[in-house]
Structure to design on (112 residues):
């Protein structure tokens, strides 16, 4: 059974940092691209960042470029999102995605 589980969310002040983790299990996900998305209250889910299976390429939404870093550990099928200089507009539920699988999300709240 495939499971995608996010963790690491929380409440931080503006300018703070958080590191999100996403663990995928049930299949060998090391050969697939993995991505983070987020959904703010009252808004549609939006793309945040993605990383290729071989870690050679990453892509970021303009809104997080230069502040967020996506990485992965293929030995454990885990993807990370290091978030620095957080802003109140980063407040959202953050979701991990691999192929058609999604986690339940982890909540990030940035206080102004």
């Amino acid at each position: 059974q495939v499971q995608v589980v996010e963790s690491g969310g929380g409440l931080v002040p503006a300018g703070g940092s958080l590191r999100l983790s996403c663990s995928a299990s049930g299949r060998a996900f090391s050969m697939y691209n993995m991505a983070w998305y987020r959904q703010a209250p009252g808004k549609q889910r939006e793309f945040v960042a993605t990383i290729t299976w071989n870690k050679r390429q990453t892509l970021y939404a303009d809104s997080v470029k230069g502040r967020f870093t996506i990485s992965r550990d293929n030995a454990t099928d885990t993807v990370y999102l290091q978030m620095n200089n957080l802003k109140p507009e980063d407040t959202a539920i953050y979701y991990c995605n691999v192929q058609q699988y999604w986690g339940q999300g982890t909540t990030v709240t940035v206080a102004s």
